[in-house]
Amino acid sequence: MTSTTSQPAPPTASPQSSAPPAVVVHHVDKAFKLPHQQYHTLKERVLHPFRSSTFDVLQAVDDVTFEVAEGEFFGIVGRNGSGKSTLLKCLAGIYDVDAGDLHVRGRLSPFIELGVGFNMDLTARDNVMINAIMLGLTPRQARERFDAIIAFAELEDFLDLKLKNYSSGMTVRLAFSVAIQVDAEVLLIDEVLAVGDVSFQQKCFAEFHRLKDAGRTILFVTHDMSAVERFCDRAVLIERGKMVDIGEPTAIARRYNEINFGRVVPHLGPGGDGERFGDRSAEIADTWFEDEDGKRIAELGHGHPCRVCLEAVFHEQVEDPVFGFALRNEAGTAVFASTTDLQGGPTGTFARGDRVVVKLEFLNWLVAGTYSATPSITRAGLGADAVDLCPDVVELIVHGWFPTGGVTNLPHSFELERA
């Protein structure tokens, strides 16, 4: 049974406060029947009325239970086919559940299949008005918010162009811009922004933070672990329809890596043991920090140039591998991360036996403390297909600057003007 605004949620304690939870998922099951023989036309059904009607059962969601607090940014993660999107569609009311209960407190807005309801033969101007009204705005509200919708989508020059002439990215931008104008307390987001360009994705993430600051509850389905660690307060990991773990985002990201890439020991770090993930078609043989003269270092003064480096050897051919680094502070917070995919594009073809040294140079504006580097090699694409990933493999001690309460101390100055 699924309930929304009109149905009060059960009096279960919220994980973050004494207030009632915004979303309750209680022992939910959802299965699909997969027939062994399918009819594609009426003629086939008439000619073969006694054809086998047996089927397999796919248990997409299997006894999943969790709660989401009001105002929480909650991640739902898992591999492709794990059941996370099915669960979100159950919450949205697209699918009925087979067993269990779902309770959503407040008005709900699903960002699951953006653009559903768009007419490709109409202009963007017409589609904005129609879709906004379909999503619950009054005609007057739709007119009042029209300019803001178009400005957010950055499509002012394409208002009178038919949607069938839009690119997929332009359509997503328009649909998302309409969807965020709905005054909903609970938002369901299912990686619908994957086709958008990087600048628009960042704009959307900033909008998520604004919605969260406004007290909205956000459920975010993804298999991008960096997004989970960056945005989510908590996350749940689902595998083959079952809930594997729930908790702090960094811990859930580690569990996801264990399931998706497998765990290998020993580690490359000074202690000689630890976690490692990937299919090992290439291997990170060494990781280190060095100064501007190329000398390996374990400590560095604030404000000095620095490089973090990896050496990799390839055991089989890999096309355009993506090399990357992430830096974490002592609290486990990612303070900086970048990849060759973000900066330089394709890296070329590496054959079996090839070796490469990759260096990322930056000016060290980190405040005093200890920082660990996580080098990675992933396949080109969404970055979720790991070749080799070694968490927190080498450390750097930064000294020479007093604590400021932040993670960096950027070059800056103050200016005072008396009014």
- CATH class descriptor of the domain at 109-258: Alpha Beta
End-to-end distance: 62 Å
Shape: globular
Counting helices, strands and paired strands, the structural category is: alpha/beta
What radius of gyration results from the CA coordinates? 25 Å
What is the CATH topology descriptor of the domain at 109-258? Rossmann fold
Low-confidence stretches: 1-16, 263-273
CATH superfamily of the domain at 109-258: P-loop containing nucleotide triphosphate hydrolases
Beta content comes to 25-35%
- Please give the order of strands in the largest beta sheet: 6-7-8-4-9-10
Number of helices: 10
For the biggest sheet, the summary is:
6 strands, mixed
List the helices and strands and how they pair.
Layout: E1 2-3, E2 23-35, H1 42-47, E3 55-68, E4 73-77, H2 84-92, E5 99-104, E6 108-111, H3 124-134, H4 139-144, H5 146-153, H6 168-179, E7 186-190, H7 198-213, E8 217-222, H8 225-231, E9 234-239, E10 242-247, H9 249-261, E11 282-290, E12 296-297, E13 299-301, E14 305-314, E15 318-319, E16 322-328, E17 334-339, H10 340-343, E18 349-350, E19 355-363, E20 369-378, E21 386-389, E22 394-399
Parallel strand pairs: 1-5, 4-8, 4-9, 6-7, 7-8, 13-22
Antiparallel strand pairs: 2-3, 2-5, 9-10, 11-12, 11-14, 14-19, 15-18, 16-17, 16-20, 20-21, 20-22
Plain-language structure description:
The structure is a single chain. Among the domains are: 109-258, P-loop containing nucleotide triphosphate hydrolases (Rossmann fold), CATH 3.40.50.300; 277-399, Coagulation Factor XIII, Chain A, domain 1. The strands form 5 sheets. The chain has a 6-stranded mixed sheet with strand order 6-7-8-4-9-10, sandwiched between helices. The protein contains 10 helices and 22 strands. Strand 20 (369-378) and strand 21 (386-389) form a beta hairpin. Helices cover 22% and strands 33% of the residues. It has 419 residues and is an alpha/beta fold.
